[in-house]
Amino acid sequence: MATTTLSLEQEKNPWLAAEARFDEAAALLKLDDGMRKVLKSPAKEITVHIPVQLDDGRLEVFTGYRVQHSIARGPGKGGIRFAPNVTLDEVRALASWMTWKCAVVNIPFGGAKGGVICDPNLLSDVELERLTRRYTAEIIDFLGPERDVPAPDVNTNEKVMAWVMDTYSMHVRHTVTAVVTGKPMSLGGSRGRKEATGRGCLIVAQEALHRLGLDPASSRVVIQGFGNVGGMAARLMSRQGFKIICIIEYDGAVHNPNGLDVDALFEHRKETGSILGFSGGEDMDPGKAMFLECEILLPAATENVITSQNAADLRCRILCEGANGPTTSVADEILMDKKIFVIPDIPANAGGVTVSYFEWVQDRQGFFWNERLVNTRLAEIMVDSFHAVVEYAEKHNVNNRTAAYMLALDRVAEAIKLRGIYA
């Protein structure tokens, strides 16, 4: 996909990006046209219109989606996001990424994703609960521990998952904790789940440093996003001796070339509501912060932050993608030319879905693990997946992202071939 054939708006379309990477991997695997169609096409796309009575008595109708991309390797798995800019294309792309993510870390799930077009900042807790429960009721026939297992995503959390779980359980007339993951601990959540995505980023970053012969203690890290993924990655990496030199948020960035005190920065944000004005660093333009010289750049916020317009300006040795789709497909070639070692999103941020898998297993067993066991098993899967992708890249002489897609497509295609096509 050449930059000359795409406008920036097209380049940032997540479904087109997913399609471009799929097509490249499928061609290299020499998949036939029929298998390509099966792998590319979502199994189900559900659109629902959700009436909600607001606190002032008005009725509002919200639009929601749930896309089940593939259930060839197991039940669908993927988050639910509440945001005003949710689109069906975005949900489709994220569902397909979940298919490949689960396959690349070799856990027995397919891919799904959900979203509701709304601004949760404008809704009260009571309105959010009504919206969540009605959305769940509208798609309930497609949910279940053996069908489709949602999780938190943008603007949703363990409280929202508790509402989903309770709504489902009330409809089926018995408690089903395994219908969602990312729940509160007292409702069947797993230890280590909140830290899992950030911890997974730490683990693969350590493997990449080791591969490149770099020392964590002298490795400078720039992190975009200070939420559940970026904030946790910053905290864990700092404790492992990494030098976190810059944190970038939506309202600005804070920089200290000698390293930020991450715990103190958390306290500062808790007290002030912003990372800006932190005494342990200097405020800087977030538009420039991502291009600081560093060993590791970790985008951990939103999609499409690295594009054909800015990829050439990056000055990192390693790009560890904590967010889903932070790099457009057009930017991949630029990163290759710059010889930046890319840890693609589908293995890099798979710590969350891996521990979600552990939560699902624990719920179904009715037997729960301690945090040490969760983290040990997470590390095993993340390390194995990192090396599987890198070795695949070397074997097929492709970049890491293409290798990750090829490995995932290969595993899903094998499952489909073994199962056959039901007619």
Attribute tags:
Rossmann fold, alpha/beta, 423 residues
Low-confidence stretches: none
Number of helices: 15
Fraction in helix: 40-55%
Secondary structure category: alpha/beta
What is the CA-atom radius of gyration, in angstroms?
21 Å
Q: Mind describing the biggest β-sheet?
A: 7 strands, mixed
Question: Can you describe this structure?
Answer:
There is one protein chain. The chain has helices at residues 8-11, 14-29, 33-40, 88-104, 125-139, 158-172, 196-212, 228-239, 262-272, 286-289, 329-337, 345-348, 351-365, 371-396, 400-419; strands at 44-53, 59-70, 76-83, 111-117, 148-152, 220-224, 243-249, 252-255, 282-284, 294-299, 316-320, 341-343. It is an alpha/beta fold. The protein has two domains: 43-187, Rossmann fold, CATH 3.40.50; 196-348, NAD(P)-binding Rossmann-like Domain (Rossmann fold). A seven-stranded mixed beta sheet has the order 9-8-7-6-10-11-12. Strand 1 and strand 2 form a beta hairpin. The longest helix is centred in the C-terminal third of the chain and has 26 residues, at 371-396. The mean pLDDT is 95.
